[in-house]
Amino acid sequence: QVQLAESGGGLVQPGGSLRLSCAASGRVNSIADMGWFRQTPGKEREFVASNNWSRSRTYYADSVKGRFTISGDSAKNTVYLQMNSLKPEDTAVYFCAATHSYIGFIDVTMSSAYAYWGQGTQVTVSS
Question: Residue 61 in contact with residue 46, Cβ under 8 Å?
Fold first, then answer.
């Protein structure tokens, strides 16, 4: 019912910048939150950032605060992740995710809160 497509990954030097995009299609009005996770081989999927679409509330993992910014363009049904001051430890496959609409509260840092996932885009930070 909802499809997500990431783009913008690539190779960047330490200290450099990169912007990821995630375009949503299908029943986009059912989406409440959109977020970004990342994963490296042999490790669990890690929360990066999230945004509540209607209230424009954002949340960031401690490891990326001050360096990454999540934003959205409602006209394009697209969420972005601006990544600055990139470090080698930021290297991972980055996944876009979206929640259903809901009543009450959810923990947006948990992958189980998200119903829809993109296929991922590789980000490599290396000199």
Answer: yes
